[in-house]
Amino acid sequence: MITEEILNEFKERMHISHSEDSNLKRLLSFSVEAIKNKCGEFDINGTSNIDVRAKELVFERTRYAYNDAVEYFDNNFLSDILSLGLDIAFEKEGEEDATF
C-alpha cells in the first residue's frame, strides 16, 4: 500500500506541487507490483538495503510512467533490476537454508 509518506517523498523528488495524488498513488502501486514481479518481495517502507534499492526502482519506474515512457524503463535499469532480483533470491535462499 502506498502511504502518504511515500507519496509525498515521490512528489518532492519529482518537484510536483499540484495535486494529482490519486494518479500518483495508482502509478506508484503499479510500479511496486511491477518491481515485485520482476525482482521478488520487498517492503516499500522498509529500511534494509534491499528495501531501499527496491524503493529507488519503484520511484524510477513511476517517473518513467508519469512521463509516458515506461517502455524504456526495463532497458535503462536492467542491471539494477537483475542485481536486486538476485539479492532478493539469495536472501530468500539464505533464510530457507537457516530453517533446516
Task: Note down, in words, how this protein is organized.
By secondary structure, this protein is mainly α. The chain has helices at 4-14, 21-39, 49-66, 73-76, 78-98. Helix 2 packs across helix 3 (49-66). The longest helix is centred in the last third of the chain and has 21 residues, at 78-98. The chain starts with a helix and ends with a helix. The model has no long low-confidence stretch (mean pLDDT 93).
How is the secondary structure organized here?
Elements (H helix, E strand, L loop, with lengths): L3 H11 L6 H19 L9 H18 L6 H4 L1 H21 L2
Helix pairs in contact: 2-3, 3-5
Mean of residue pLDDT? Answer: 93
Tell me how many strands there are.
Answer: 0
Rg over alpha carbons: 14 Å
Q: Beta fraction of the residues?
A: under 5%
| Major sheet summary line | none
Number of helices: 5
Order of helices and strands: HHHHH
Enumerate the spans where pLDDT stays under 50 for 5 or more consecutive residues.
none
Overall 3D form = globular
